[in-house]
Amino acid sequence: MDDKPLPPPWGDLFGPLRKGTVDDLVVVGQVGQSLDGRIATESGHSKYINGPAGLAHLHRLRALMDAIVIGVGTAIADDPQLTVRLVAGPQPARVVIDPKGRLGAQAKVFAADGGRRLLFVAQGTRCDPPPGVEIIALPTTSGQLAPAAILAALAGRGFRRVLIEGGAETVSRFLVANCLDRLHVMVAPLILGAGRASFILPPVERADQALRVPIYAHQIEDEVLFDCDLSAQRVQIGVAKKST
Fold first, then answer.
1. Maximum Cα–Cα distance for the chain, whole Å?
2. Within 10 Å of residue 55's Cβ, how many Cβ atoms?
3. CA atoms in the 13 A half-sphere facing the CB of 61
4. Nearest to residue 1, comparing CAs of 91, 68, 63, 53?
5. How far is CA 128 from CA 100, 106, 157, in A?
6. Using an 8 Å Cβ cutoff, are 195 and 39 in contact?
7. Backbone phi, then psi, for 108, in 5-degree steps?
8. Beta bridge pairs of residue 182
9. Cβ atoms of residues 94 and 69 within 8 Å
């Protein structure tokens, strides 16, 4: 995004994503859920909890990003394309976190369509992705790749705006690690009653111990976007902002 003013309502929705407040990165988590906080039914079905308006917003958000990150579980279960086909805009790089190298070469996220494709694996992992996929090996802790290390590796390759799109475990790990500037939660007017929760977080004993952050609510047709500002707790990853 350049520095020209954005017309309503895009200024309110996307203006905060222009520049980071902690460093030179902007990291956004994204969740699409039902009213009762579910991202899928108990069987795992999730296409589509959000309607056309919510999906169009997601694709606009993708188009503003340099890279989209998903975990291998989402890549296997949903086989997403991670394109901006519903709106006009540039295609971001597609990134998969796959410590054990489980994702097959035929995954749609690996499609050779001219976009950059990156695969994060654990050091020592053997994998055979399609030609042109960039492999980045990182050390693990308890079998997991550290969110801050992933973002630092992406920053070192020129990616400044990063969207953590899914699934629940991946978004939650970046949230717990204080690696998100914003969290977009798009709530659809559905009540599933049971199913997969939007977040997988450590429990708290009391309600007053829960994370409370500034939010901005936006009505988008029959859905509501909660834009959560997490910048106050975000750890520094890129080049720090200079005080004036």
1. 53
2. 18
3. 30
4. 63
5. 12, 11, 21
6. yes
7. -60, -30
8. 28, 229
9. no
Question: Do 164 and 171 form a contact (C-beta atoms < 8 A)?
Answer: yes
How far apart are the C-alpha atoms of 137 and 219, rounded to whole Å? 41
Map out the domains of the chain with their CATH numbers: 23-198+214-233 (3.40.430.10)
Q: What distance in Å separates the CA atoms of residue 57 and residue 226, rounded to the nearest whole number?
A: 12
Q: Which amino acid is at 18?
A: R
Q: Can you read off the two tokens belonging to residue 122? A: 């654990």
pTM over 0.85: yes
Q: Which two tokens stand for residue 235?
A: 């750890």
CA–CA distance, 5 with 32 (Å, rounded to integer): 27
DSSP 169-220: HHHHHHHHTT--SEEEEEE-S---SSSEES------SSGGGS----EEEEEE
Along the 244 residues of the chain, how does pLDDT read in single tens digits? Answer: 556 666 667 788 888 888 899 999 999 999 999 999 999 999 988 888 999 999 999 999 999 999 999 999 999 999 999 999 999 889 999 999 999 999 999 999 999 999 999 999 999 999 999 999 999 999 999 989 999 999 999 999 999 999 999 899 999 999 999 999 999 999 999 999 999 999 999 999 999 999 999 999 999 999 999 999 999 999 999 888 776 5
